[in-house]
């Protein structure tokens, strides 16, 4: 009986090692909460301070550069927070955050994000600002779905949610900033809280 238990324990340890080697497990709930908070603050700045109101496909906005800089600042803060927190979590587990799995994860996310970024830039340069929010949500959702192959299943679920929000936003273009705040803000905060209580407590 004891020998059988030892075998089961060995199998569990091997399975755990294989899981760590094939999945990127250094994602942090706090990074999600911070990213969502940055997005909500950025949406508030765009709406309240910059008076950004894209309510149609074609939109002429003279102060667009400030909105784009705000969005870039939100993205930069979110990336730095995610990288630092993932590194902290990996060090705590005595693992490297930069390994073959994390590289595959980044590549799988980079392809839709890069293609989407170019498309959105082309549309904005042609005055189609109203499509920026739904397309950022849609391509980000696709990137998360791809990333779900290399990390926990909840990331793929969040990808589906982002894609759904992007498609809904395409029907209601006048609410782009609201959908953007829900997708990048509220969804990230809820995901981060779930991650913290599900995996980090």
From TrEMBL:
Residues crossing the lipid bilayer are 24-46, 58-84, 105-124, 130-148, 178-197
Q: Does the keyword Transmembrane apply?
A: yes
Query: By what name is this protein known?
Result: Uncharacterized protein
Question: Which keywords does this Swiss-Prot/TrEMBL entry list?
Answer: Membrane, Transmembrane, Transmembrane helix
């Amino acid at each position: 009986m004891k020998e059988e238990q030892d075998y089961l324990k060995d199998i569990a340890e091997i399975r755990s090692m294989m899981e760590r080697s094939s999945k990127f497990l250094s994602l942090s709930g706090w990074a999600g909460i911070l990213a969502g908070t940055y997005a909500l603050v950025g949406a508030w700045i765009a709406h309240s301070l910059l008076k950004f109101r894209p309510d149609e496909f074609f939109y002429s906005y003279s102060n667009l550069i400030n909105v784009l800089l705000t969005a870039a600042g939100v993205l930069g803060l979110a990336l730095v927070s995610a990288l630092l927190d993932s590194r902290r979590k990996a060090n705590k587990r005595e693992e490297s955050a930069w390994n073959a799995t994390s590289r595959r994860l980044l590549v799988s996310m980079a392809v839709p994000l890069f293609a989407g970024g170019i498309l959105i830039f082309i549309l904005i340069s042609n005055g189609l600002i109203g499509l920026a929010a739904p397309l950022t949500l849609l391509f980000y959702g696709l990137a998360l779905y791809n990333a779900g192959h290399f990390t926990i299943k909840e990331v793929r679920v969040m990808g589906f949610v982002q894609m759904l929000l992007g498609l809904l936003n395409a029907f209601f273009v006048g609410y782009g900033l609201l959908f953007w705040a829900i997708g990048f803000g509220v969804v990230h905060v809820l995901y981060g809280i779930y991650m913290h209580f599900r995996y980090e407590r």
